[in-house]
Each structure stands twice: as structure tokens, then as C-alpha cells.
Design brief:
single chain; about 160 residues; alpha+beta; minor pseudopilin epsh fold; five-stranded antiparallel β-sheet; four-stranded antiparallel β-sheet
Amino acid sequence: MRTSPANSGSAGFTLVEVMTALFVVSIAASAVVLMAPGPDSRLRDAAERLAARLQAAGEASVLANRTIALVVSSEGYRFDRQEERGWRELPNDAALAFRPWPEGVTARIVAPKPDDAAGMRVAEFDPLGGATPLDLQLEDGATAWSVTIGNDGGIDARRAR
């Protein structure tokens, strides 16, 4: 009896083929795990958004030649601009208008002003590019992120220790 060439080989996969398939699946699974949001992604996003808005406020202060202040409360934060007749809240349609804290996130002023300064102007950006130093901590119970403003107007957001 003669066998045909189609029936002469094995009917399964080789070890090399199985190992290659497992390698490809493990790489794909690793990519999914690395791209998944971490447990503090909501808090990190809030800190990074605040840092970006602080940077914009510093630049707006220089461009408008007016002092702009950060106002922090338990509900959220906004920016005020010093005008000839005093401080004025920026309009609701402005990029620097009031923003609420995300649900479950609280803000705590670490330095230089105490916590009882909440609801007041806690940091100011001057038209020359400088700023009032501030360390503001955002917390969600499990983790904390610190957003700092330096004397030179530099902004930094990082996980608090």
C-alpha cells in the first residue's frame, strides 16, 4: 500500500510553532496590561490638568500684563485676574474658569499657607513671570499627587511621597 504525500506528515503542531504562538500572545497581553489605567490614573489626570491650567495662567498673566491668582475651595478651583477696580473672576467660557474636583478627590494646601486659606487666593502669577510658591496636594484616600508652583513660576505635578 502506498501513502500519499499529504498523509505522510504529522497531524499536529511542532513545538516551535506552539512556542511562537505563546510568545505572540504573551507580548499582546503585556501590552494590554501596560496600557491599562492604573489605580491612581484619575488622580494623576486631575493633577496634570491642574498643572497645565496653572501653566496657562502664568502665561496669560504675562500676555495680559495682569496678575492672575489661583483660588482653591473644597468644591474646585478657579482663577481671578486683578483689574484696575480690583479682582475679577474670569468668565465661565474662559479656559481658566472654575473647574470642580473629580468625585472623591480632595485638595489640601501644604505650603506655605495653612488649610484655612481654602476659598481664598492662594497663589498669584505676576506679569513678569514670577509666582507665589505653593504646594497643593490632591488626595483620593489611597494615593496623593502634589502640584507645586515655584518662585520662578515653574509648575510640577508628581506623586506625593
